[in-house]
Amino acid sequence: MSDRGYPNAVADEFPPPPTAFTDREDREIEIRPYAGEEAVREALVEMYDAFDPADRAQGIPPGGEERIREWLDAILCDDCYNVIAWCGDDAAGHATLVPDGDAYELAIFVHQEYQRAGIGTHLIRGLLGHGQANGVEKVWLTVERWNRAAVSLYKKIGFETSDAESFELEMGLRLHAGDDEDADPDDGDE
Amino acid sequence: MKVLCGIGGSDDSFRALDRTVERAAVANDDLTIAVVDNEDSSVSPDEVVERAEAAADEAEIDAEVRRVEGDPGSRLVEIAETEGFEEIVLGGGHTSPMGKITIGSIAEFVLLNAKTSVTLVR
Q1: pTM of the predicted model, to two decimals?
Q2: Spatial distance between the Cα atoms of A131 and A104, rounded to a whole number of angstroms
């Protein structure tokens, strides 16, 4: 919300989707934005229904088809930004920006069959490119501090830690200069 | 059971209040509701006290509602220890727009430092 911290510096330019690449397992992966297609929503339901509960983070994705659908209804909203990594007709990963006041909350999920193949990096860059192209200024996320792979991915992208005082780390990224006064570093206590 | 329910005015703390009062009425718990300072809450402590008293009245239980000032986490742990409480009940966390659950600093302190069982209400 309004008291979250963001870096003063604006992040790099990220490539807006669609993009395509070959992952480290030699699979052809395409990153495309979600545009309200029913079939895409169903592919996501299928991906999350098969999601390993060990990869849940802070309660999401929820378990069971009914809860998954309810959760997807909230994060596939008209003013949300979503991108999906496709391997053929299968959703391999999904990343989302959900509005929160003047900023957006980010989350990213890669199905366990597709992890450790470089898809997460492409997916998050695609999501941030999609957000940047649509004028998103500020993005925040929380991540469990023991999740080193995720924390190092976010740092590599340019996220900076804004709150390290609880179980979860909070991190922020600035995608556009914007005109708010949040960039004023008078509140820095780190 | 002798139960200490700590609330500060956040949505999840009111959920914890309702559930604890409901349970106390059934289980005949000896319930104390501690109204603590929560700087993230938009509801004033006086209003929280009123809500707690109303909830106890409605359930027709004889709960003590007490205003507790100072650092919320350490005060709750201290009260539980010195007054022989068997359980501390707190709100189960804030849910972000994304649906992620974040546990607040009060719950975190109590979880790590309490000698009693701690219940987080979802």
Answers
A1: 0.85
A2: 9
Delimit the domains of chain B by residue range: 2-121
Q: Dihedral sign, CA of A115, A117, A119, A125? A: positive
Chain B 31-50, residues with CB within 8 Å of chain A CB atoms: none
Q: Give me the count of residues in chain A.
A: 190
Distances (CA, A) of A64 to A53, A69, A70, A73, A98: 11, 9, 10, 14, 22
**Which residue is associated with the tokens 């703390």?**
B13
Closest CA to A172 of A141, A136, A133: A141
* Domain residue extents for chain A: 19-178
CATH topology of domain B2-121: Rossmann fold (3.40.50)
pLDDT in tens, chain A (190 residues): 446 889 999 998 999 999 999 999 999 999 999 999 999 999 999 999 999 999 998 999 999 999 999 999 999 999 999 999 999 999 999 999 999 999 999 999 999 999 999 999 999 999 999 999 999 999 999 998 888 889 999 999 999 999 887 778 999 999 998 755 444 444 444 3
Q: CATH number of the domain at A19-178, please?
A: 3.40.630.30
Record: contact B98-A105, CB cut-off 8 A: yes
Tokens at A108, concatenated: 């990213």
Q: Which residue has the tokens 């929280």?
A: B48
- Chain A: closest CA distance from residue B78 (Å): 21
